[in-house]
Amino acid sequence: MFKNERSVRIEWGDCDPADIVFYPRYFTFFDASTGALFEAMGYTLRYIRDELNDVGFPMVDTRSQFFKPSKYGDNVTIESEFTEVGRASFGVRHRLFNEGCLAVECTEKRVWACHNAEGVLKAKPIPDEIKMKMMRRSEKQESKNKGQ
């Protein structure tokens, strides 16, 4: 499945008085990482909204495990990948690494959504072109495998 990686610097505003990341901030990082995953495939939220006339991909379930705290000034790496792709829903796994160690792992389930004729938010099938890209490997993955 398609993967993406991004770097994040932990800022002062991300931390609580104990100088560690306040846990809801991780969900902000992971939400942005889901957006970055789509952008790495060539689909910005602006494109999804303006060109496809869809809302995007609201969250229906999320879970996380915390293994190691991150602190102000840390540079972390978030690896994100699709774990499953259904008709209208998909799964994403985010793994946040700090100094090479797994610090947080999060899973999400999201649905592709639009507004129906009455303006009500509803799930709809993921467009075939996007679904195909979600299920294939990224160029970074392909070049990594060729080097092995």
CATH architecture type: Roll
How would you describe the oligomerization state of the chains in this entry? single chain
Strand order of the largest sheet: 1-3-4-5-2
Specify the CATH class.
Answer: Alpha Beta
Number of strands: 7
- Structural category: alpha+beta
Under CATH, the homologous superfamily reads Hotdog Thioesterase
Under CATH, the topology is which?
Thiol Ester Dehydrase, Chain A
**Helix-strand string:** EHHEEEEEEHH
First CA to last CA: what distance?
Answer: 18 Å
User: Radius of gyration over alpha carbons?
Assistant: 16 Å
Q: What is the count of helical runs?
A: 4
**Low-pLDDT runs:** none
Strand content: 35-45%
Largest sheet: 5 strands, antiparallel
Number of domains: 1
Protein name: 4-hydroxybenzoyl-CoA thioesterase
Main traits of this protein?
alpha+beta, 4-hydroxybenzoyl-CoA thioesterase, 28% helix, 5-stranded antiparallel beta sheet, 36% strand, single chain, HotDog_dom_sf, globular, 148 residues
Describe this structure in words.
This protein is an alpha+beta fold and 148 residues long. It has one domain: Roll (Thiol Ester Dehydrase, Chain A), CATH 3.10.129. 28% of the residues lie in helices and 36% in strands. The chain has 4 helices and 7 strands, in the order E-H-H-E-E-E-E-E-E-H-H. Strands 1-3-4-5-2 form a 5-stranded antiparallel beta sheet. A hairpin with a 5-residue loop joins strand 6 and strand 7. The model has no long low-confidence stretch (mean pLDDT 94).
